[in-house]
Amino acid sequence: MEISIEDFSNPQLVLMFFIMLLLLAARVSCYILYLIGMRRASAEDDNFKVAFYATVISLVLAVPSSIFTLNKEIASIVELLLALTVLLTEVYVLEGIRSLSKRLGHPEMDKRGGLIYLFITTIFVIQTCVSVFILVLGGATASAAASWLGVAASFLSVAESLVFVFYFMSAIRIFSKE
Questions:
Q1: Smallest Cα–Cα separation from 88: which of 131, 53, 64?
Q2: What are the boundaries of each domain within the chain?
């Protein structure tokens, strides 16, 4: 799809373009705040340092992920690597929180972190299987099944992200009181 300057006379297209820019700016801002937080937290536990570097690698992999969207094979491989670095970030953040929880005497946070770790890795395995299925059986023969599996994987990803964020927020509340 090619966009010309005449297309910007359409108010809906202009609005959609600015909403996309706003969302991109919000995403970049969140990554910057996340990196700052990881860098500060790395003084408390080395797990956060690994999470910081995994997040930087995720940002670097996001560029080829955007560039190779038309080449499904390369895009799938880059997306898998990107998902792996996101998983590493989450695992090391979880381990950092669990480590701090043990040191500060909050065993309930450590126990919840273990359950969330199991949930996150299970969702990652499911998403990886779906990605491999879509890559191997792609095309017209599996497009309907791949679409449904992609939607299911997206919902699981959102659920996993919400569980992780709520755990992270409760850790911040507990640790800010210390």
A1: 53
A2: 5-176
Instruction: Give the pLDDT confidence score for residue 8 in this predicted structure.
Output: 62
Distance CA 165, CA 90 (A): 10
What's the 3-state SS for 41-84? Answer: HCCCCHHHHHHHHHHHHHHHHHHHHHHCCCCHHHHHHHHHHHHH
Reading the block at residue 102, the tokens are 């043990």
- Name the nearest CA neighbour of 101 among 55, 50, 44, 34: 44
Query: Residues of the chain whose pLDDT is less than 50?
Result: 1
Work out the widest C-alpha separation in the chain, in whole angstroms.
63
- Looking at the chain, list the stretches that DSSP marks H as alpha helix, in order from N- to C-terminal side: 11-41, 46-67, 72-104, 107-136, 143-176
pLDDT of residue 1: 47
